[in-house]
Specification:
By secondary structure, the protein is mainly β. It is built from no helices and four strands. It has strands at about 5, 10-15, 20, 25-30.
Length: about 35
């Protein structure tokens, strides 16, 4: 099962010790593992 994430412009998410920051466009990605 994948983690599905959709970030709005300039939104951030913290996964573990990693901060993922979005730029100017909406982004959708899937994390599998």
């Amino acid at each position: 099962m994948a983690l599905k994430v959709e970030l709005k412009p300039r939104e951030r998410i913290i996964i573990g010790q990693v901060v993922i920051r979005n730029d100017e466009q909406r982004t959708r990605f899937f994390i599998e593992g």
